[in-house]
Each structure stands twice: as C-alpha cells, then as structure tokens.
Design the sequence.
C-alpha cells in the first residue's frame, strides 16, 4: 500500500489494483505528516494543523487514539528506539516564524481521546518543513538545517554541534540548505542546497574535524533526497523533472529517469526498498521500480498558475474541466477523484524559464451535448496579445476531441467571455457561439458547410454577426434557457438581444459599478435575469415588465445557476470571509445561507448534475438533490457541500463487509444457511404464532462491532451513538388508510372502555402465560388491530342454535 496525506484526509492506495481502498478522515485541518508505527506496521500516526496526533489502523480504516497536543503540528517523526513518544515540529511561543523540534509523550489510557501535553524540547530554531529535519542511524542523533546552518544533536551524549556555510553567493553558488537526509547504516548526512549541489557530511561528531564531499548535477535547487534501504544509492530530485540516482556516493556513477512531467517535491522509499515514489508540484505521485523504471502514477487535480478557464462541466462525462498543465485542459473525474485525461490545446512546447511570454488557455465552453468544445488561447502580452479561437469536435472513434476550426485574432483585444446557445432538442443544427471582448464588441459564430474540396471536415465556423453598445467594453454573455434571448453586459449596462434577428430588445442598469456576473433564471423562473455588480449589489430584473424586481446589497464574487432547477448560488466575500447564499429569483429571501463557508476566498463554482437524485431527509439540503455544488478557492483547493455527516460518509468497514458477503460459501456456511432457511419456513407455516423482531445483527453498525478485531476497536462511548441510531425505527409517513383507521378508533373509544373490565380479568388469567413470553413483544399494525376489534364485537349468538 501507498499512504499519503490529501488535505485533511489520509488516503490508502493499493499499488496492485491502482485504486484508493481507504479514506481516513477525522482531522479538522491540513494533515502535515504521516508515519508508520515503528512497533506495529499495520498502524499509522498522522499529525495536523489542528493540534492533534491520531493513531489509525489503516488496514481497516479505524481510528484508535487521538492525542491532543494543543499547538499547530508542522511535521511528524517516529523512532523505534523512542518508546511511547513521537517527535513534532511546533511554532515557538512568543516568537514569529521560529520553530522547535519537541518530543511528545503519548499518554497510555483506556479512552480514545487522550492528552499529549508532556512535551520536551529537543532542538530550537529548526526549519518548518519536514525535509529540514532527519534522524540518524538507529535514532542516535537528529539533524536539522535552516538557511546556511546545520545542527546535530546526539541523544546519549546530549551534545549539540553546529556547522555553518558561507553566506556569500559567488560564481552562481548559493549555500542555503533545502533538505537533509541521513544514511540508514552509516554516520553520513546528505544535504541539498539552493544552487543544485549535494553535500555528504562525515565525521560530524567533532566541531572542527568534520569533512564533506560534493555531488553536482542539478542546475537549480535540490528539492528532496532519499537513501535506499541499504544506503548504497542516493536519490535526488528538483525542478528539472528528472530523478537522479547516485551510486556509492560517486559523481561519476549516476543514472537518470527524465521527463517526469513536473518538478519533484518529495521522494519516499518503500520499507522493502523495491519501490520509490515521487511527489510532484502538479499534484501527482509517480511510483518507480528499484531499477529506475516507471511503474504507475496517481494524478490528482493539477494546480496551475491561474485557473483562467473557470470551472466547466463536460456534459458527456460530467467531469470538471479547467486549466491543467501549461497549455492543457484537464478533465477531472469527481467519482474516482483522479484525472481522466489531459487535452493539449496550445500544442507548443512549454519552456520552464522565468520572464518568457508564452501562450496559455484562458476560456473554455462546451455545447449542450458535449460534442463541440470552444477554447481561447492568448499570449501573456498585455498591449498586443496574440489570440486564437479554436473549435474542437468530439470524435467517437478515437474518443477524443479533434481540431475543426482555428480562427486567428477573433477580437482585437482580450476575450472576456464565451458561451454556446444550449438547445438540446434542436441538436447541433442550432449551435451558435458568442464571444465578447475588450474591443467593445460581441461576435456571433455559426457553422457553415466547408466548400473547400481539400478540407478534411465537412463543416467549419465563421462570424455571422457583430454587435456593440455605445462603444462600451463587453464583459459577460449568456443565453436564456430556451435560447431565444442573449444577454450581454457592457460595463454598467446589461443588454438583451433576440437570438434570431439580433435586434436589441431592452437594457438594464443599476449604477454605480460595472456588471460582474449575469445569468438567466431557469424553469419556472425563466422570466428573470440576475446580475451582480462590482459595487456590491445583486439585482433581479423581470424580462416581462422590463423592471427591477428586487436588489440586495451583497458583494457577490461568484454567481452560478443550477442547470436542473431554479436555484442560483451566490458566493460573497466580505471581511475575509466567504459566505454562500442560495435563492430562487422569484423569492428574494434565500432558502439557504452558510456563512464562513471556508477560510480561503472562493473564486469559482460549478453545479455538477447527479446520476440519480439524492435522497435527503433535511429540508435545508433539498436544493442539492439533483446537482452537487463544487468550489475552487484561491489556493486551488476543490471543495463541495455534502448533505451527509462525516460519520455517514466514512464507513470504514462497509467495503470489508461487502467483500465478506460476496465470498464463496463454505460447507459450514451451507449447513448454517440450510438451517436458517428451514427455520424461516417454519415461521411462515399457517397456524403458528409469528413474532417479528428487528434483526439487529443485519445492521452495519452491529456487523462492525462483531467483525472488527477487538484490539483495534474504538472506545464504547464512540460506538454508542452509531449503535443506538441503528436500533431506532425510522418514522414513516402515515397513509390515508391509517388516518381513516385512527378516526374510526376514536369513534369506537367509548365501546372499548366498556370492555376494559373484561380485559382486566383476562389479563389476570393470562399472567402465567405471558411470563413465558416476557422478552417477546408482538406489535400489530393498525389495520390488524381494527380487524380484531371487529371480530370481538361480532354477534356469535347464532352458534348456540347449532
């Protein structure tokens, strides 16, 4: 298994099946470190910025212990020689940007939540990154680097040695430390530096007699280092996207694995030395064999420099589409939490060098069926940008998009927005593409038959109409749900155009401030047009009356309509706080408000249609039944709103139980199953009293209690809530028949009272019989009770005549 931290979760990845088999969540903030338990390799320690250390059984995905330290934890280390203790990096109290390495005594106790307040300082003024501290052979010493300083602390001798390099940057040299790692078998320290050099330190037990040798291949900073299991090989990585393997600490013997795609941030070796993994800056993990051969990779959501395309949903795959690698579009699957594929749009080699003006992808739009894709790419020049509009058609044979039309300089200045006319019922014959630009015009592009006999495609795209309004810059555009109207914003004014004749129908304005976002209402709210200004106003105009229906003072940065309902999501940014407001245009009062949604600023949002409507019992989440809302923050973290709690989403043994139920049957299980079937048949025989009890053992909560090994079970207080909830009977809605039965029961209440005396006597006679069924409760339905009352009131006097 490969274990890695992802946000505030820890994921367990199967190297063989290439699937995520466990998702362990419980931290309230970013996970900063994970380490295997040295005394039990089936357990894992994790640290977080929330100030807690958690112990997991990662095979079953069960949380065993939580130790509260009370301070932000920036890195985590474990040692086999340090019993019941771990090492963490924490901020030093009273000093800014100063950190210290401390030892945390893990308290032993019966409960699950324990205190980890017993701290002892090991080193002061250490680096905040996990790569800045390393433990030596068998935990005899600890090494820390910061700036140009290296310090070594020997535990038994309680000796601290400090070493410093020159701060002068001569001949391109930069001696600042970037990472450190220790040899697993010998007293040797390897350090990486900002100028690309690697130094191997020896004899550092003495302050003056120490020595070091130098290895140099990287032209820029060494990002990370790692020794092999026996220490015969040293791996290094940096911004060159090349993994370098050094043999026997010699600069002459080295191997390379090039073209890994992006700079290497971290290198990790497996415990058996067979595999190593590299973490890259594009949020990708590469697994590499010991012979330096590529094995497989795990690609997450790529972090680009700037997500200029926005969050777009592919109608075919329901994948999120946004900027990926430079000049590429990434199609990201939300179901598998992995990248589906990457589409090269710019089709130029990207050069990793500062100061170069290179083309990048800025706008993306899909047609309603996903058969057409429009992209806009432009150079980084501010005054005279190089623009290209490309139309791509999806080829079913190759299962990818092919370039159909390339239009050079579609506008004289930057393109600000782009949209297709979405009319699914008319198909691609009604396709229209609209682009807006800073050249104060919007352009309409339509498909025409290609008359060129040498052309490979039968259709191409051309400009059909150019519109403008008082020489104002065009900023946003969108079509109504039926495609009959086009709204284009020109600075402070919103214009509405007929999409058949391109006549200007009406204009709306709400000064002061330019229009930041616009969108049409849908379904029953299709007569409304919503707009947000950069002066902090949210406006709703009625297209039938051409008047303002309502406005709200709200600084909206994101305005996103749900394509499957009338709901519109608005995200505001005020006082360093992102808040979510969900509303219908015909109701000015929001139906859902979530203040302080996240700490970061939300820049983009998108509704993704669900495969099936989600069943939710909470009324406040009914607007999420058909679609799921995703957000992208300024730190490029992808988040979503969930209708389920964390306990409901994380069921550690659910997959395990599902596997057990699908296992092949054994002779014993066949015998046991036959006995159960016979018992079920006896219960259904007529004339026998059948008492139906809730089968508690069929509950997942009870199965988890019975199937989980006892030594990894959480405390009873943690399982109590889940267990009690599993025993509760869900409240069902009353049918019309049951309501009628209740009315009839009330009318017969007087007759029932007259029979109470006889019933009391019967109860006294049957006391001895009821003692036998003391533990059994027979609960009849209301219809059955009604039938019994009718039988009791029936006249049986005719029997005496027989």
Sequence:
């Amino acid at each position: 298994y490969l274990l890695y931290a992802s946000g505030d979760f820890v994921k367990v990845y199967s190297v063989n099946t290439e699937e995520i088999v466990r998702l362990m969540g419980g931290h309230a903030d970013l996970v900063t470190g994970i380490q295997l338990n040295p005394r039990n390799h089936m357990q894992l320690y994790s640290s977080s910025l929330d100030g807690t250390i958690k112990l997991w059984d990662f095979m079953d995905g069960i949380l065993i212990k939580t130790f509260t330290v009370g301070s932000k934890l920036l890195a985590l280390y474990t040692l086999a020689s340090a019993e019941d203790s771990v090492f963490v990096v924490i901020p030093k109290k009273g000093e800014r940007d100063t950190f210290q390495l401390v030892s945390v005594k893990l308290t032993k106790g019966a409960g699950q939540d324990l205190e980890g307040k017993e701290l002892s300082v090991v080193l002061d003024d250490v680096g905040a990154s996990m790569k800045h501290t390393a433990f030596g052979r068998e935990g005899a010493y600890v090494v820390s680097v910061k700036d140009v300083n290296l310090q070594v602390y020997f535990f038994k001798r309680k000796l601290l040695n400090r070493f410093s390099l020159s701060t002068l940057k001569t001949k391109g040299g930069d001696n600042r430390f970037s990472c450190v790692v220790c040899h697993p078998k010998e007293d040797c320290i390897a350090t990486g530096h900002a100028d690309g050099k690697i130094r191997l330190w020896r004899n550092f037990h003495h302050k003056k007699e120490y020595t070091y040798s130098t290895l140099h291949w990287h032209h820029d900073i060494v990002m990370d280092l790692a020794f092999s299991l026996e220490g015969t090989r040293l791996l290094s990585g940096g911004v060159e996207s090349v993994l370098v393997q050094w043999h026997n600490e010699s600069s002459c013997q080295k191997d390379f694995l090039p073209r890994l795609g992006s700079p290497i941030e971290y290198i990790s070796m497996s415990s058996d030395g067979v595999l190593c993994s590299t973490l890259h800056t594009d949020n990708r993990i590469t697994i590499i064999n010991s012979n330096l051969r590529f094995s497989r990779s795990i690609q997450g959501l790529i972090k680009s420099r700037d997500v200029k395309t926005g969050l777009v949903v592919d109608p075919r795959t329901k994948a999120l589409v946004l900027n990926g690698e430079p000049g590429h579009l990434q199609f990201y699957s939300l179901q598998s939490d992995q990248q589906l594929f990457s589409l090269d749009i710019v089709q130029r080699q990207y050069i990793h060098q500062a100061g170069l003006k290179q083309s990048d992808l800025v706008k993306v739009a899909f047609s309603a069926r996903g058969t057409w894709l429009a992209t806009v790419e432009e150079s980084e020049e501010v005054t005279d940008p190089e623009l290209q509009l490309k139309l791509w058609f999806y080829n079913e044979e190759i299962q990818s998009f092919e370039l159909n039309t390339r239009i050079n300089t579609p506008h004289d200045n930057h393109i600000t927005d782009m949209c297709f006319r979405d009319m699914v019922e008319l198909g691609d014959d009604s396709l229209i593409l609209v682009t807006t630009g800073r050249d104060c015009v919007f352009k309409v592009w339509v498909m025409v038959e290609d008359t060129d006999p040498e052309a490979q495609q039968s259709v191409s795209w051309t400009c059909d109409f150019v519109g403008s309004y008082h020489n104002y810059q065009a900023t946003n555009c969108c079509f109504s749900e039926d495609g009959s109207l086009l709204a284009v914003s020109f600075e402070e004014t919103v214009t509405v155009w007929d999409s058949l004749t391109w006549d200007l129908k009406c204009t709306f304005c709400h000064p002061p401030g330019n229009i930041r976002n616009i969108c049409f209402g849908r379904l029953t709210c299709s007569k409304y047009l919503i707009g947000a200004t950069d002066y902090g106003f949210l406006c709703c105009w009625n297209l039938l009356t051409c008047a303002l229906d309502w406005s709200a003072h709200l600084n909206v940065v994101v305005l996103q309509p749900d394509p499957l309902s009338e709901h519109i999501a608005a995200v505001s940014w005020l006082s360093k706080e992102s808040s979510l407001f969900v509303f219908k245009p015909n109701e000015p009062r929001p139906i859902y408000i979530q203040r302080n949604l996240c700490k970061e600023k939300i820049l983009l949002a998108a509704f993704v249609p669900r495969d099936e409507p989600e069943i939710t019992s909470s009324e406040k989440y009914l607007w999420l039944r058909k679609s799921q809302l995703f957000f992208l923050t300024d730190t490029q973290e992808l988040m979503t709103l969930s209708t389920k709690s964390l306990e409901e989403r994380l069921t550690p043994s659910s997959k395990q139980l599902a596997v057990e139920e699908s296992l092949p049957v054994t002779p014993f299980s066949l015998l046991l199953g036959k006995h159960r079937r016979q018992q079920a048949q006896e219960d259904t025989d007529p004339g026998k009293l059948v008492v139906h009890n809730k089968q508690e053992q069929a509950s997942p909560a009870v199965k988890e209690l019975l199937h989980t090994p006892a030594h990894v079970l959480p405390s009873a207080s943690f399982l109590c809530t889940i267990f009690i909830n599993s025993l509760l009977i869900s409240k069902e809605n009353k049918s019309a028949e049951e309501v009628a039965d209740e009315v009839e029961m009330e009318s017969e209440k007087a007759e029932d009272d007259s029979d109470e005396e006889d019933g009391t006597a019967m109860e006294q006679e049957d006391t001895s019989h009821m003692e036998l069924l003391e533990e059994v409760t027979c609960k009849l339905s209301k219809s059955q009770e009604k039938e019994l009352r009718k039988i009791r009131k029936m006249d049986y006097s005719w029997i005496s005549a027989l």
Residues 653 and 659 are 10 Å apart (CA to CA). The longest helix spans residues 667-683. The chain has a mean pLDDT of 82. The chain has ten helices and 55 strands.
